[in-house]
Amino acid sequence: MGLLIDNFDGGWQNKQRQGLLPDKALYKADDVATDELGAIMCRRLHTINARFSGVSSSSVIKNIYQLDVEGRRKRLVFHTEGTSLCVWNSTTGISRTLSSAMSGGHVSYAAMKPVLSPLTYVFLTDGTVALCDNGTTSKTWGIDGPTRVPTATIDPDFSGNLSAGDYKYAFSFYDKSTGSESVLSPATAALTVTASNAVAVSDIAVSSNPRVTSRRVYRTIAEGGSFYLLRVLDDNTTTTLLDTVADDNLTTLATLDQDIPPEGDLVMTYGDHLLIAGDPNYPNRLYFCVANYPDQWPSTYYVSVGSADDQIQNMFIHEGAPYLLLTAGIARLLGSDPDTFVTTATRSHLGTYARWSQAVGPDGTYFLAYDGVYRFDGVKSTRVSDAIGRVFGLTPKTWYDVVDRATAGDKADAAFLQGKYYLLVPMKTATGSVANKLLVYDTLAPRWDLYNVSADALFADEGRGELYGGIEDASDSSKYTVYNLMAADASSIDTPEVDVVTKEYDMRDIGEFPQRDILKPRQRNVGWLRKYRVDAIGSWVLRFYVDGVLRYTETLTGLTEFDANTWRDFPSTLKGRQVFIRITSSGSPQPTTHIFRELELV
User: Are 432 and 448 spatial neighbours (Cβ–Cβ below 8 Å)?
Assistant: First the structure.
């Protein structure tokens, strides 16, 4: 009786014992795809595509984010190049630098259209620099208020319609393109006015902020304490005005509490509000802006989640509801406005230490925890990585790596695309070296695959069904480029290598065994391997392990479909109880030139 090992569609598994693997699973798989007819093939990821060839830099490219501009066939690709934040325009093919002072860490993006703007702005923050960009110009996020006190005096040369009493004046900076307004300046001292006086207001400061297009001057009514809009100075140059306006004509109250955005490195859009988290001083606070005014953040517009020890690591939307991914759990944000916003804990028993490992799919959000990858379904979290459990251990082995927890917290990146969760994560080898690898979970199979990629960032273009990554250029090691990681039939950036290990099989069921049915209850102690055949294309190295010891190695070169029925002899002494096979590609493997379909032993 023979043993046929074929139809490798079980993906990459990593059980505690090889014997517990499903027959179609692989114990170890580097640079492997098994989704085409169940064969072992070189991966189809990590290949050059010219779509984003204009996005290149001598520095590592990270923090990729794409926005399709409304009403135009134009894409904007935001990304960091070292400590510089840039945006690439698909129409012009030109990259523009927004800031050269980024921290070099992770940048969080959110798209929102302010109430007075015809354009969608991308709001971004890294906890140090906060910018907004509409694809043409970049502006600071939030407008600092004036610090100068204006001057108010009675003008003896003019008469007006003011009533008798005391008045105070103040002003603000204003951006009419977005409706953003700063807090008011310090107010003048009370000025006593008699009936029909006119007031000269001077020392109305101009702003050095390029986004300030106007100043708004406010005044109290006679003996009043509230400030009302007096006049808009529709420029950033005029410093004086003459006030002759009657109290009855003042109707628009000033908003006193609308400060600049708080510090934070997380930003997300929810309805008409922009949310910020990641304040290092208040790590469990979630801030929100005035509806439709993403530059205005009243000091009371926040909610706290749990304790300061349970930090907000990330934010996401699942089935229309906003959630906060914490260090030790997941909370949900309830309500629709600042008066009703409140948080409540879910049944998720754990959170994440790798804040950027989170990605949302239709069946839930996926994230990396200390002991594996979990899926949160809106109520609770379930581990989905049991099949590769060893990869989350602390000690790597010769044949498999482990997630490097020391760096994964900051460097792990993730995306969800077409039913697959892609986790780019640093992994440590048995020799102590650390390099990024790509763990891919097919939620429909379900199945895990492992790919060796040198990408430093991921971005999923869901509308086009494409996955992108920032990778070192194949032709120039001093340059990095944003590539399409899923382009088929393109030249490879590096040389992929297939390396898999099959399940461990009982040799006592292999080979000639006369009267097997009768003697089955008295199974023999050992078995012999006599012959084997391979249905494969390309060059492969087969290593046969008997009872855990490497006993035989065979290198097969230039296999074609005509070699599928060629039987090859084993050494006569190859006997034992258990056997597994390590299959490694050799030569220059490509998806179309190296395919391993089946191995039969007798």
Answer: no
